[in-house]
Write a structure and sequence with these properties.
Distance between the termini: 34 Å
Number of strands: 12
Radius of gyration: 19 Å
Structural class: alpha/beta
CATH topology: TIM Barrel
Oligomer: single chain
CATH class: Alpha Beta
Number of helices: 11
CATH architecture: Alpha-Beta Barrel
Strand order of the largest sheet: 3-4-5-8-9-10-11-12
Helix content: 25-40%
Order of helices and strands: EEEHEHEEEHEHEHEHHEHHEHH
Number of domains: 1
CATH superfamily: NADP-dependent oxidoreductase domain
Strand content: 15-25%
C-alpha cells in the first residue's frame, strides 16, 4: 500500500481509506472482518461522519460500530488515523422520509457533535475533522471558535472540508488564518471513472469541440488542490451516477466494463482493482475512500493501490467511461 501525506499535515497515511457510511448495517463480527481486511491490505485511515446511520436511522451509528470494530480487529489507536465529518442536520424521525433539514456550522453544534463522535468511536481524539459540505449561512466567528476550541482541547488534530469549491475553501482559510493547526488539509469530493468532471472541466478550457458543453462546474478543483497542497479524498469512486450502481460488472456499461476487463487481464488483477488504480494514477496524489462492506470485493479494490497504470491505459478507461477528449 502506497502512503501519502495528507495536505501539509505531516500525517503520512495509506493512499486508500476505508469509508464506513454503511457499516451500521453490519454486526460486530462482520464489521471487524471488514476492518481487518482493510488493515491486512495496508489501510490505516478510516473515514466516518456523525450522520452515518442510514440503515438503523440513528446518528453516530456507523461510527459506533467502527469504534468497536477497530478494536475487535486488533488495531492500536496509535497505529491508525480516524476522520469524521460534521455540520449536517438529519431528521431520522420518519424512517420513510429520512432527510437533511439544514446545515449547522455553529460552534455549539460542531463541538457537541464532535464530542458525540469521540464517544461513539471509542477515542479521545480524531486525526481529522471535516466540515460536511458547505453551509451558505456559515459565520467566521463560529467556525474559528469551534476549530480553536476543539484543537486546543486535543480533540481534533487536523481539519478539512468536504464538497467545497476553491473559493469556499479560500474564504474559510482566510477566516482561520495562517496558523498551521488551522490549515484545511483535505477536501472530500466525489471522483472516479464515472465522476471525472474535475478532469473534463480542465480539458474543456477554451474548447468548442463538438459534443462538449463548456460549463466548468468544478472551478479548477484539481489544479487548485495541487497548488494549495490540499489532499482530494475521492468518495464513492465506484458509483455510476445512475440507478445502476456500481458500474463494475454492470451490464448497463458494456464499453467501460470491456475496457476494465482488458486492463485487468493485462495487469493480472480484477476489474475492481483497475477502477481503484485509475483514481490513484492521477499525479494529484488523491486518497481514495472505499466504502464496500464486502471483504472480498473490498480486497479486490485495494489490490489496485499497488498498480501503476500506463498513461495510455488511463486515457483508454477515461474514454470508455463516456468522457471525451477535445
Amino acid at each position: 500500500m502506497k502512503s501519502i501525506e495528507i495536505g501539509k499535515s505531516a500525517v503520512v497515511a495509506s493512499q486508500a481509506a476505508l469509508g464506513v457510511m454503511r457499516m451500521d448495517a453490519l454486526d460486530a463480527d462482520a464489521a471487524a472482518e471488514v476492518v481487518r481486511t482493510a488493515a491486512e491490505h495496508g489501510v490505516n485511515f478510516f473515514d466516518t461522519a456523525d450522520i452515518y446511520g442510514f440503515n438503523v436511522n440513528r446518528d453516530h451509528a456507523s461510527s459506533r460500530v467502527l469504534g468497536r470494530a477497530w478494536k475487535d480487529a486488533g488495531l492500536k489507536r496509535e497505529d491508525i488515523f480516524l476522520q469524521t465529518k460534521f455540520g449536517i442536520n438529519i431528521d431520522f424521525s420518519d424512517s420513510n422520509n429520512v432527510h437533511a433539514t439544514r446545515y449547522d456550522f455553529s460552534a455549539k453544534h460542531l463541538i457537541t457533535r464532535l464530542d458525540e463522535e469521540l464517544e461513539a468511536l471509542g477515542t479521545d481524539y480524531v486525526d481529522f475533522a471535516l466540515l460536511h459540505r458547505p453551509d451558505t449561512l456559515m459565520e467566521a466567528e463560529e467556525i474559528v471558535e469551534a476549530f480553536t476550541t476543539l484543537h486546543k482541547a486535543g480533540k481534533v488534530r487536523h481539519f478539512g472540508v468536504s464538497n467545497v469549491n476553491p473559493w469556499q475553501a479560500e474564504l474559510l482559510q482566510s477566516w482561520l488564518g495562517d496558523d498551521p493547526a488551522m490549515r484545511l488539509e483535505a477536501n472530500q469530493l466525489q471522483f472516479g471513472l464515472m465522476h471525472a468532471q474535475m478532469v473534463s472541466d480542465e480539458l474543456m478550457t477554451n474548447s468548442g469541440a463538438e459534443g462538449m458543453v463548456v460549463v466548468n462546474h468544478s472551478d479548477g478543483l484539481l489544479s487548485y488542490s495541487r497548488l494549495r497542497h490540499m489532499t482530494i479524498q475521492a468518495w464513492s469512486p465506484f458509483q455510476s451516477g445512475t440507478e445502476y450502481v456500481p458500474f463494475v460488472g454492470n451490464e448497463h456499461f458494456p464499453e467501460l466494463n470491456k475496457a476494465l476487463d482488458e486492463k485487468a487481464a493485462k495487469y493480472g488483477v480484477s476489474a475492481n482493482a483497475i477502477a481503484t488504480a485509475w483514481v490513484l494514477r492521477h499525479p494529484a496524489k488523491i486518497q481514495i475512500v472505499l466504502g464496500s462492506m464486502n471483504p472480498t470485493r473490498l480486497g479486490e479494490m485495494l489490490d489496485g493501490a499497488d498498480i501503476d497504470l500506463d498513461k495510455q491505459d488511463w486515457w483508454d478507461l477515461y474514454v470508455a467511461a463516456g468522457n471525451l477528449i477535445p
